[in-house]
Amino acid sequence: MDARYKSREIERRSLDVDGLKRSFLEWLVYSVGKDARAATRRDWFHTVALAVRDRVVDRWMDTTRSYYHEDAKRVYYLSLEFLIGRLLTNSLSNLGIINECRQALDRLGLSMDDVADSEPDAALGNGGLGRLAACFLDSMASQGLPGYGYGIRYEFGLFEQRFEHGWQVEYPEQWLQFGNPWEFARPEVLYPVQFYGRVEEFRDSVGERAYRWVDADRVLAMAYDTPVVGYGGDTINTLRLWSARATRDFNFGHFNDGAYMKAVEQKILSENLSRVLYPNDATETGKELRFKQEYFFTSASLQDILRRYLQHHTSFDNLPNKAAIQLNDTHPAIGIAELMRLLVDQHALRWDAAWEITRATFAYTNHTLLPEALEAWPVRMVERVLPRHMQIIYEINAKFLNRSKARGTGDNAKLSRLSLIDERGDRRVRMGNLAFLGSHKVNGVSALHTDLMKQTVFADFHEEFPDRINNKTNGITPRRWLKQANPALSELITSRIGEGWISDLEQIGALKEKADDLVFREEFRRAKRKNKKRLAAYIARQTGDEVQVDSIFDVQVKRMHEYKRQLLNVLHTVALYNEMRDNPTVSWVPVTKIFAGKAAPSYHMAKLIIKLINDVAKVVNHDPSVHDNLKVVYLPNYNVTAAEIIIPAADISEQISTAGMEASGTGNMKLALNGALTIGTLDGANVEIREHVGPDNIFIFGMTADEVNDLRASGGFNPREVIASNPSLKRALDMISTGVFSPDDRNRYHPILQALTDGGDHFLVTADFADYCRAQDAAMELYRDSEEWTRKAILNTASMGWFSSDRTVNEYAKEIWDVHPVKPVHEGEGFR
Ligand code: F55
């Protein structure tokens, strides 16, 4: 090879400061097309990202090649959402070259933080479900597991939230506007996906009944690959996202002008499939485009998976030994019917063989028990959009129900509950039932949630298939949520116990013995204080609010939903405000209530609660009689990037959902890991967090899931009685209903008052109020004793090792997927 090329090749891989700096200048000039004087911060971000990408590519190809050569069993994580956030610091940190990069930029007179801040936040998800998928990608790569993410490359991610007069307003989130330096377009990886049309029956070569799907519309799915850098940079996995492309076959000879333009318009419209992420985090709204998105990416992913499998195999018998497909909720569950179609119609397998292969290949994760979130598509729509799939679903259903009857499930009510079709009202396909039946394993995301699945939504299925449901308590990646987001605490931890915790979070348990060490406590407090200053500056920039670093940072950050009970928190805020005004001579512990989170654009109640928080903030923050002892802040546009600043600065973590309604929660884990004390109900993974941190180091309040269940079964309660008997609650509600916070529109909050009274208070806000205030008081009291507080905070951080998503992913790998780590062979090793 020509020596000049050779040296350039070495340069591209060089990981030292000089090499990085030379690469940056080369990329800036030759690819971004700017010189150093003209370059903007964004230019520098693109420059640095492209140079970092160079350091990834060889190892990425080595990883992919190793999987191929070993014909390793792969796991395919199918998810309509991947809430990735920014990648620059993440990639540098996992490659171990963050300091080198910082120095190289220093030498160019640039600040690494400014460059990193120019990266848009990839928000291809709504909340917990999408972020879990992103944490799993990091953990699979960090464990050396052959894992692929499959999803949609939305042109518009989750909307940008702004406040106008305190109301949420949505703006399009154009993350791709200036290009995406991390992705590789793969125009040659292109699969057809069909919609509509009809089904023809015919006789196959051996005279058996067979079906073909004809006269369908076609869209193409084009792949974009993003490398997923594992910790240490050894394994680099792939996230493959599909983008919709119109086909060019017009299929109908010649036509007049009008027909031609119409045909072209249709083609253009087909690209809307990957245009925008649906912004609902709970309700399935029944939109045809959403259903088509689900099928679009699922079909493309399955075609890709089968193509990869067929490179090594001629029969499908071994598919379950070579591919595990995990369904992230029911959103990709149509994949069960699609795999059946591909195997039976396209590859001529017998039904029973295809079904056995399908079931052995798929597994399904449930993320919610809320009835309004369980997907059920109208039969009339499914048969129009995917006629062959509707037939296949009927066939699966008929065989299943017949077998159940034959096995003695005589009870018709039970059979109709087990059916894939909900026959009540307009007939609907129950995607949860399809996912359950078509999977060999079905899991919940916390111990409590998994138990409740067995007792409620899947009780009948659990009776039929007692070994199918299992628990996989969620986790979070310590790389992003401690190492990157909280460098102050990370460096302190590493200085005492070494850096093993980064890839083996259980090692953080070694900090437990430091909880009694006064010097360590002081340093722990110093790290928290540094993070609080960083957040205070961010708050000032975002909202103009001034907050006191010495106040308790009481944080509730998550999607807005009635079941998450931000309302309970606001009511406590108003009660605390009243107490402070009533008792001005008491030396109050100053409190800053910090909220952030988006509401689904059509969720009026959630948007009204946002407005209430902003209205309360306006009154409280400008009332001199509370002497700055209480501030209320609502940070706009909560996303992964904002979370990385907010979470490390929290003293209190609010995890206050109505018991039984939050499947797991993962923000609860991030906050506790960063040394916040939880105020929470016994819901989701809070139960397991209490077991790990110990009941003395968490503030638990409120009704349990069983108590909630019993209360509902016994016909509910009378919230008016509860309100009448609690003067502080009554006063807070009266203030809201009489317009103290909305003098410009005194009736504004009537829907909220209505829901809490005549509405029966479905989420038990009033029922849990008194005990919540007790927990809040206990926390405020403890905060006065800064040594005790710090001791408990340290014990929280030190006890969260089990909640690493590395643990979660390893459990999936062993108990569901049967996949094993592969050690990549790095051919370019000599260059390191
Ligand atoms: C998105 C779209 C639809 Cl149609 C339905 C739900 C969602 C969604 O975003 N769900 C979601 O985030 N669920 C959450 O999943 C987390 C990860 O398992 C859990 O921790 C959390 O409890 C659950 O609400």
Automatic annotation (TrEMBL):
GO molecular function annotation: glycogen phosphorylase activity; pyridoxal phosphate binding
Catalysed reactions, semicolon-separated: [(1->4)-alpha-D-glucosyl](n) + phosphate = [(1->4)-alpha-D-glucosyl](n-1) + alpha-D-glucose 1-phosphate
Modified residues (N6-(pyridoxal phosphate)lysine): 670
Superkingdom field: Bacteria
EC category: transferase
Keyword Transferase: yes
Pfam families listed in its UniProt record: Phosphorylase
Keyword Oxidoreductase: no
Cofactor annotation: pyridoxal 5'-phosphate
GO-annotated biological processes: glycogen catabolic process
Annotated InterPro entries: Glycg_phsphrylas (IPR011833), Glyco_trans_35 (IPR000811), Pyridoxal_P_attach_site (IPR035090)
Gene Ontology CC annotations of this record: cytoplasm
EC code: 2.4.1.1
Keyword entries, A-Z: Allosteric enzyme, Carbohydrate metabolism, Glycogen metabolism, Glycosyltransferase, Pyridoxal phosphate, Transferase
Function of the protein: Allosteric enzyme that catalyzes the rate-limiting step in glycogen catabolism, the phosphorolytic cleavage of glycogen to produce glucose-1-phosphate, and plays a central role in maintaining cellular and organismal glucose homeostasis.
Family in the record: Belongs to the glycogen phosphorylase family.
Full protein name: Alpha-1,4 glucan phosphorylase
Lineage: Bacteria, Pseudomonadati, Pseudomonadota, Alphaproteobacteria, Rhodospirillales
